[in-house]
């Protein structure tokens, strides 16, 4: 009777309060858009009534401090559950009718023959979430050239929940959240697979050398450790991982419950999505550490039978965290099938939900899942409504990209077979053993550089002392006094020469035979310095990324204190970077002055410090160009315009894929 007259009770039996349905709807919208906490809303209600001199009193006639909070919270919760189950019932009825009216599509179970498209449908849930991605009725496109669906994965460690929030009884069946027990069972199975591997099988052929993958893994591990500063034992849920489509629509979400192990969340999400797709479906995955995950899947067989139908790439946003050899293999710009997708959408999802972080940190386990699930569904609905606008924007973007790459390719006058050939050689050079400087050489170069600095410092101080002594005592006396200093300087120089001879540069880099020793020395020093500069730049970009994420997006303002802290850190470090860049350019300059093209070595490019503020993913700083080949130098090494043309060539191919994908989205949406 209450509901029929437009009110919703605070409890199912013997309610003391009932709230108007309009007010509840208004609040739900307010919460979805502004994350207004219920405490604040109840306070507003109290003040609002107080201004009209309406008070809620207890038995003794005294006004109650906080009359609305408990009944309101409970009414909101049950009202929202009722609404969502009503929606589910309606959708189920429509679905049943549709099944009755439309001829059934056979669901293929034969995974062989990937080239042939097969009839089949994704689950109702996925089709409703993103019709553009999932409403297709044909599946099984070649995973190596054009996977059926592209999704992006990302973790966030800000969405923690304090253990003290407690567990509440289950009252809601989430649509996006994976069950913690399911994820744990996947983790257990992965553990078994790792143990079985230790039993000793021959390792399969990998896309990348082990040390490259290890370096990528390390760089992200460090970044994540800085990110997840939660206290051990203090948080039950330590964060969230969300799998979304390229339209920023969340598809699957899971809680991070264990520190350390991260791959199981990714595997759980992939398995969930694949389980909801027809058997021949293929999947492209964009993930921060896609390279590491791909490697582990090959090594331990995590994905089992799904493996041949899943391809992975790394998100462009954090490409600076990857080795150059890894970027050559895993950048979505260099990997067929990913079109212009970049994996940045998850950032937008996080920024939309960051307002709920403080509200949900102290809430109960089930309540948090309930609220987050509803919020993610809300942003999915918003995303679905704006799919048309997304398409229009994307077509525009595609047109401008296509034009730009055409211009660069035309100017370079290089044909696409030549560029393909150069591309293959570039990739090969990056993973060849020689290009990874041997460790012992590296340490020797380090000490050589240190010695070089000492020699220079000493020389400067000798000059200073000599100048002042000569002024005060006359040249002859000064010379005797200085002889000891000069001796130690000679000693240092001799030690430097010896160390340089020990470097064994010619054996390590036979191609450098015939190049004057001074040049070789500068080349090696420049290369080492560039590695250091690259590391610094990457560190700075990590810092920025953390800053942006703390703020909830690039364009969000953050607290003054945090801003100052990080800014000070950045300025302090930029001084060191500045000096390193200057030194590097000095090396480049000295090589350039004596350069002889008959040496057949590539000239390193000077660095521009302003460009290092935020270098693009194909910027020269990420590329290892000189000193890496044993065979005669290739055009891509010698000429930066060839490298630019290679990038343009790659992007033009991604543009073709993007065009094909946009047409597929349009067909899917029309079909839906
Ligand atoms: Zn989508
Ligand atoms: Zn990598």
From TrEMBL:
CxC1-like cysteine cluster associated with KDZ transposases domain ranges (all copies): 1-49
Protein name: CxC1-like cysteine cluster associated with KDZ transposases domain-containing protein
Organism: Calocera viscosa (strain TUFC12733)
Pfam families: CxC1, KDZ
